[in-house]
Amino acid sequence: MSVTIYDVAREANVSMATVSRVVNGNPNVKPSTRRKVLDCIERLGYRPNAVARGLASKKTTTVGVIMPDISKSFYAELQRGIADIATMYEYNIILSNSDERPERELELLIDLFGKQVDGLIFMSDSVSEEVREEMSKAPVPVVLAGTVDGEQQFSTINIDYEQAAYEAVQKLIANGHERIVFVTGPMTRDINRLHKKIGYERALRDASIEVREDFIIEVQDNYDNAYSAWKEIEQLPEKPTAFFVGNDLLAVGILNGIRDAGLSVPNDYELICFEHSLLPRIVRPQLTTIAVPLYDIGAVSMRLLTKLMNEEEVAEDKVLLPHRIEERDSVK
Amino acid sequence: MSVTIYDVAREANVSMATVSRVVNGNPNVKPSTRRKVLDCIERLGYRPNAVARGLASKKTTTVGVIMPDISKSFYAELQRGIADIATMYEYNIILSNSDERPERELELLIDLFGKQVDGLIFMSDSVSEEVREEMSKAPVPVVLAGTVDGEQQFSTINIDYEQAAYEAVQKLIANGHERIVFVTGPMTRDINRLHKKIGYERALRDASIEVREDFIIEVQDNYDNAYSAWKEIEQLPEKPTAFFVGNDLLAVGILNGIRDAGLSVPNDYELICFEHSLLPRIVRPQLTTIAVPLYDIGAVSMRLLTKLMNEEEVAEDKVLLPHRIEERDSVK
DNA sequence: ATGAAAGCGCTAACAC
DNA sequence: GTGTTAGCGCTTTCAT
């Protein structure tokens, strides 16, 4: 077996309580004793067992993170923000992918609470009823990162997606466009249905432009689908002149569709989208976007979670981080 | 306090051992008793405490994963493969980023072993001496995923980078090129110095082409640096005619440099690179690449780890997965 | 400043 | 088939 606190105590001729004190930096230890203990720890190669510590102290210094899919840059970037702050406060992260399946999300919540995480960060594109219920009786603090909570029930870090969408579409309108197609991921997602779409419609209405259902193109959230969607859009009886796209991957699909058809952005079509990755800077023309501070959303979420776990006062637990429009070459 | 196994036992008029048995699916329980216990569990809302279980059983059903940076698509994709197999075998994952700093890697190893993970997957671009030493005395199985171990000491899942590089360069040579630039991330990384570079050189030598140091361009591993590197390459006294690039992000940097200078791929230059993400399919022209099965590397690594953790026999613990050349439009 | 002792919630012999 | 009991390795009162 490996060396325990008890072995150290015996070796140093002190009680395990004293060893525990020096390991935990408790000041109530005479310097000479501390040195002696430290010495034995070193010599025996003692490493505290975090599981035993967790059982005794009821703190695991571990937080759970549930997200749809780490292989999507949106979440990977958020995760990096979360992880850096977690490191700073000395928490580990148990990361799991839900693929946005509510049953799976529920399973994971139960699993992670069972593992006694000290807190949880949850990401998804909607909060289902079962999930809401389970999170309501969570034994530890929960914060939603980059995730829309219609009920405003949980602590949440986001940007104002609706307003951002509004501004993007407004920009297109200011450039003289009236036939603006909205290309979006599944409308089953609250973020699309309740925010991006609403912002799009509000901008049109404020400019007295009719909202046309056939100008709202819903696709599965991947590059190939967006690329094929272009063919559908090409057939539209009334031709659009501009695109507002829900994210950069879809936007590049549309862009490539346009370009492979021998047409040009921004001459034949202007386009603006949300920015979640390097893509908008990498393609040609570079895309004008609404930059989403993903890393910051993750970092702020984790910071908030640390406060909640420490039972510190928090001024505001529903925060909207600023976004900005990144002017590049897909809009004149 | 929350409900414990003891509460359930009392409520069901059985011993905690029996409750433990039904919770763990031990068949030595009379069906009627099982039903009664299950009923109380349901009624009291009992959830097993995984920390206590871990302390008693010495198994945490948690594995540690150390990687340089989850926000890089290379690692995110690997991680997805790891995570899916982990889910299948009911392990959780503690994920942490090392930024390739050996001190940090060491810290994380110690931290994760302290948390009593049942196994560990390690990724990095080199295995430093301290890290090697710590992993050698690991209390649990370790496997390296997508990570070069010069000493062949640890279980490892990889592709044959050297051979892949060889084939890529050979392809360029077959197309008549003699002045082929190798653009690479830092040579401090074993994978670049010991594999990709060697494959490049071997291909040249086998074709009796001189290896020129000024044709090996080392850059920091990001898009902007590759983009600027183009300007440096442009100044080369002898002009290259083709590029072999260490990864797709760097390749796109070079590609954009070329195109923004008004030149064309594949007409003015041909280019081939390793493929780690969607990028090669997304840019125009689409890039000819060596496809690396990242997801599979992750999945196979995790599968191997499960066997090791179960002390099953493993036929081979150093595996090279197949790679293939993906013909697209950056090579004629 | 230090020690003794009682748990934390569970598993795993072992006994019946 | 079920109960008893001794830990797992630590933290945390409470004494001293």
List the helices and strands and how they pair.
2 copies of one chain form a homodimer.
Chain A lengths: L4 H8 L3 H8 L7 H14 L5 H8 L4 E6 L5 H16 L3 E6 L4 H13 L4 E4 L6 H8 L5 E4 L9 E5 L1 H14 L5 E5 L5 H17 L9 E3 L4 H12 L7 E4 L2 H13 L9 E6 L3 H4 L5 E4 L2 H16 L8 E4 L2 E3 L6
Parallel strand pairs in A: 1-2, 1-3, 3-4, 4-5, 5-11, 6-7, 6-8, 8-9, 9-10
Antiparallel strand pairs in A: 10-12
Helix pairs in contact in A: 1-2, 1-3, 5-13, 6-7, 8-9, 10-11
The structure holds a DNA duplex (16 and 16 nucleotides).
Describe this structure in words.
The structure is a homodimer of 332-residue chains. Chain A is α/β, with parallel strands linked by helices. Chain A has helices at 5-12, 16-23, 31-44, 50-57, 73-88, 102-114, 129-136, 161-174, 190-206, 223-234, 248-260, 279-282, 294-309, and strands at residues 62-67, 92-97, 119-122, 142-145, 155-159, 180-184, 216-218, 242-245, 270-275, 288-291, 318-321, 324-326. In chain A, the strands form two sheets. Chain A has a six-stranded parallel beta sheet, with helices on both faces. In chain A, strand 8 (242-245), helix 11 and strand 9 (270-275) form a beta-alpha-beta unit. In chain A, helix 1 (5-12) packs across helix 2, helix 5 (73-88) runs parallel beside helix 13 (294-309) and helix 8 (161-174) packs parallel to helix 9 (190-206). The longest helix of chain A is centred in the middle third of the chain and has 17 residues, at 190-206. Chain A starts with a helix and ends in a 6-residue tail after the last strand. The mean pLDDT of chain A is 96. The interface between A and B is large, with 49 and 49 residues. Chain A binds a DNA duplex (16 and 16 nucleotides) through residues 4-6, 14-18, 20-21, 23-24, 28-30, 33, 48-58.
